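Entry for the shared binder. Reason: the reviewer on the internal report wants the predicted structure included alongside the sequence.
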Amino acid sequence: MEKAMNLGAMLRSFRVEPLEESQLADFFCGDTIAIRMGNKWKSPLRDLQEACAKPSVANAHLLLGHRGCGKSTELVNLKKQLDESGQPAHLIDCHMELDLFQANCWDIMLLITEGLCKIADDRGIILPQATIEAVFDYLKKDTEITGTKELSASVEAGAGIKASTPPLLSTLLNAFVSVKSDAKLSAGTRAVTKEKLEKRTSDWLGYTRIMANVISAECGGKQPVIIFEGLDKIPIPENIFSILRFTVLAQMPFPVIYTFPMDQFYSPQFPALGDSYTWHTLPMIKVSNLDGSENSDGIAVIKKIVEKRGDLALFDGQAGNGVLEYLIRKTGGSLRNLFKCIISAAGRAEWRGADKIQREDADSALSDLRGVLTRMIVRSEYKSLAEIYSDQKCREQIDDKALLLKMIQASVIIEYQNGNHWHDLHPLIADFLIKQGVIVER
């Protein structure tokens, strides 16, 4: 990815994807946490890093945040910081590694074990031969894995295994690739894996403990860290609760971090998880304050994020009151929404033959987003939404938790933090209700 210097390049540089580790130096903005938290001395990412450095019997963590708030990129940066501090970390992209519609706790167990093997491989750490053989035998029993040269030759390219990887570990890593591939295609393979892990969970946990202890010993006592990025994107809420309710995942003997959807914090099922996991919240970047005033610091830091990806001269208008600031205000601090609108507006401007995004292009992109958001609400909800917009006390405490859950899921309500959590209407929903005569602009 390169910084966009023309409209066409903006379609690539503002893709809604987390940054890769190699892109952090050029595109990551590390100045957002104080704005998000309303307190420069608090940081959920720093808390996570410090927790990972402390040995604990149970060290499982949930990182909560709305879609589009930047969790994924922050976790990529956390992994980099852990590695640089000498603490080995492995990040798992759940979108790539899991069938999100069918994922279960046994898939997570397999990925944790594979992650430990990859950490050992990356660091040149020799895992005990007996453990590798035990894990491989465990995987291949009752499955189609052969574990020989044929398997290695057939899937080694997909596994990305280095030529220097010891043969036994190479075979095991290939076995993980094979099992994951078969599981996505075969319900039978999934059933066999589930049955084996259910019956011998204690054995499997013992293998991971041995691997983690060896890695820790070779890294000066620093435990390996496994990070699951994208688990919050599981489309069926009950499935993510089903996965995380599996007690073993909350009691791994080394740090494991899972992303978790912010809206499900308000589900009646969450308190049970909150007792088993340490949870941390990454709030949205505030573009307004609790009292309804504009948060100029939040707008400024989002501008810095945009400037790293594209030349600000591609946005029409005067600094501080131009098209970019307009887009930032109207997308409510959601980087995901902002980037999508920039792509849409840049495409329209280029199609018109313009050399920069103008107000009409921004309005067109925002109109499309407004249409999506307004379809999520019905007239009977207008009164409750109006109260949130007009009454600061309602923004601080929303009593109707069912409505709150629904509206946060739909991105109609956005959650911020200013010492305590508070809520506001998405600016485009507020514009819609003002136009409908339901509320008066504050």
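Summary line for the report: Residues 145-159 have pLDDT under 50 and may be disordered.
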